[in-house]
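Page header: ASSEMBLY MODEL / two components / 554 residues total.
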Amino acid sequence: VKIGVFDSGIGGLTVLSALMKIAPGHDYLYLGDTARVPYGTRSATTVVRYSLSVASQLALEDVNCIVVACNTASTYALAALETACAPLGIDVIGVIKPGVTAALNAYTQGAIVVLGTEGTIRGKAYQHALMAARPNLDVTGIACPLFVPLAEEGWTDGEIPAAVAERYLRPILTQSGVVILGCTHYPLLIPVLNQVLPNATLIDSATATAHVVAQRFGKQERPGSISFQVTDHIDRFCRVGTRFLGLEPTQVTWVDLVAPSGTFAEVLSTYMEQSSS
Amino acid sequence: VKIGVFDSGIGGLTVLSALMKIAPGHDYLYLGDTARVPYGTRSATTVVRYSLSVASQLALEDVNCIVVACNTASTYALAALETACAPLGIDVIGVIKPGVTAALNAYTQGAIVVLGTEGTIRGKAYQHALMAARPNLDVTGIACPLFVPLAEEGWTDGEIPAAVAERYLRPILTQSGVVILGCTHYPLLIPVLNQVLPNATLIDSATATAHVVAQRFGKQERPGSISFQVTDHIDRFCRVGTRFLGLEPTQVTWVDLVAPSGTFAEVLSTYMEQSSS
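Prediction written out in full:
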């Protein structure tokens, strides 16, 4: 099966890394929209527009399935992507539903806290999905914008990330309960988060999503292939991406994203009409 | 005089703030490309392409002058912007030359250090301009990516920004000499930088650029007007921008940047041919 993995930039490589371990043997094409990263601070409209142009490019590559690795894109654009992909027979799998299911499975008592970008937290997709499943659940979202540049700088241990985490997580430092890592960058900070939140159970949406892909498409014995497309320079993607993927990305090509075409253009046009009215 | 102030996002509001104080009475139109911010981690080609599309929009608004407030755009795109603007009679003023002149005026002995984004430091525009003026100068560039999200979060004093600054600036902590703030976000960190670098003289390119504009176009007694265009949502721009401008932006409209037209399209096409050959 040919599986497109779509992310705003480099962070989704943690999802690809989980896919390679948990659902090996498929042909993975990772597209990082590095010319327009990050999606996490952008408006819903902009995230939908960017997501449709990325998915339109993946459809041109004849993928059978698109994994929306970016939490902010999953928050705002999943419905639009499903509508555009359905007539083409392309499956769409976001990271939020798998993360929510894994969190509910791990949950025993106390609160559930979602950590993510400004966009993911403001969009409340995790919060709504959790409350839909268990209406009386105590759910809190905390936006942690500094976590992304800390992960990209490789400052993932020592005094600085601990101080930043303590500042964001001050209201929940001693809480037990479940904490969802609702951003692809955050798995790099798991050691520091375990230290700052000693009583919490951390749920990584990347791993949960990889299990959903393995359930749907199985694992294969064949080696499978992995290739990459990025919309900005390849050298930074490879340099910083190595920390996220666990190995250096190879077979990386640059693509120019043009306006979405076909069903993607139709969905965008409908969305823009609705959001302006 | 109608002056367009172009920035990748919110940071250039420190330049606008300096312009309002030092060169008052003009009609300022600030354009923040918030849908594609930050430019600081992008490739030269992408920065040139984005800069030409922003300037093309400002030209449609009949500005007489474009102040390129973004250091990364000034680093990579100034020549392209000058070439495209010259036939239209639009002046182009970047932040680097004014910053370099101010640094050389303040310089007595020791080293000159430039702080900036990855793109600004890698592009070496400050370093080259300084060395062109004084070939034997000891010039160092230090990229400080965490400074931007710290400024946008408003974490500009206390333990965390001090620890981050000490980590980036470890090689120069006790040095005297001149330190150029080569990113529009960094003036918000001046108190912490003064504390971490007690012997250095800080040079703020924003203020230096405002003096160049005042020299060229004078100050006017009339009140002047200020308006804003952004390419992504207005609410975040106003909320975060208030800290940068010193007052809340009003008269903010959303614009969609289309492909550059006229001389901007011609310059882009020439640039793309040259950079791919």
